[in-house]
Every structure is written in C-alpha cells, then in structure tokens.
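Service request form, structural biology core

Requester: graduate student, group of Dr. S.
Request type: structure prediction, single chain
Budget code: on file
Notes: please return the result as structure tokens.

Sequence provided:
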Amino acid sequence: MRTTRHRANRPVLGVNPPTPRNPCSTQTREWYSGSSLDRDEEDHLRKNIILAISVLALLAGCKSQVDTASNVPAKPKWQGAPYHISVGTEAAKPNPAGVTIPPIKYTANPNALEKRVTLVVRFDTSGASKQGELLNRMIMAPVDISGPEGTLPASYMDAADKDLSRFLAAYGIKGKIKITVALARSSLASQAGDTEVDTKRLSDWLPLDVVSKSPHPTR
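Core staff response, request fulfilled:
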C-alpha cells in the first residue's frame, strides 16, 4: 500500500514566499527622509528670511543715523561775541594820573572784523564822597585796530587812564576800585545809555581791579 505524504507546508521550488510588509522598510524610511529634508529646507528658508529682515533693519537704522547726523548743523568754530578780550601779558606802566588800566588784548572772529572800536569802562561808585546822581561809565573815542588779534595801543590806554582818573577824582573815589571794560562799535555815542551800549557792544565785559591814587604832579 502506497503512503501519501502531506506536502502542504513544503515550499514550491522556484517560488519565494511573500515578504511581510515591514514598517521600517526602505520605502517607509525614504518617505520619512523626504519629510525631514523638507523641514530642513523650511528651517533654512526661515532663517534666511529672519537674517534678511535683520540686515534690512540694521541698514535702515544706519541710514537713519546718517540722515540725523547730516541734519545736525555743524558747530560753529567761533563761540560768543565777535571779540574776546583779556588782560595782556605785558606789565602796565604806572600812570602819573593815579589810575592804571592793564593792557587790553583782543581776539576777533575772522568773519566779523572791525577797523575801529570804542573802549567802554564801567566803574563802581559806591565809595564816592560826592552826593547826587553819578555816572558809572565812560565811553572813549574810537581807535583804529587791524587784524584778528592784537592789543589796544598804549597811547589809547594812557588816555583812558587819564579820563578815568578825572571821573574818580571828581567823585572823591580812592583806593581799590572794581571796573569792567568792553569793546563796542565805533558808532557808539559818547553819551549812550545802557541799551545802546548793549546793542553795539562787541565783546563781553571783562572785570578788573584798579587802584585810584592821588595823581603825581607832571613837569
């Protein structure tokens, strides 16, 4: 009697059994790889956009600063009144009139030079022995000057010493006295009031101390 063998579980020669679907197969990995690449490209694009916006903002800020700087007016080289005055370095020779004003040095704005100026002298009258209304300033005659800097002529200062000594002697003022001097335009009237003096003044007031002594007799 021939025995029949059961071959249901035997593989058929030349035929491969179907491979079960693997969730980690190549196709699946390729699909996930593509998604990751897309995200990388999106992140890269987003970073580039942010970088471009930052650069534009920086450039806009720089341009704004440049525009602001260009709109700021340049600081003028010369500050203050057209003329600056100070005490000269040379020693003043004592005036026999009894009062000696130190040499007056000036420096001018090159764009506002004057050919003639007037010296104005204000003095303290609190120590006057004379009663009544007193003038507290004298206005000298104009003097010629040239160039952006220099010193008022010695002969001009000598005349100022003599005029001031007459005022002080008339008012009975002696001893140490506070005065202030300034340069003004040559058109200033000899009897000008405070308003005209301030309008035509070319320099700030320079405070000085002088001593009023009894005049020495001249030969």
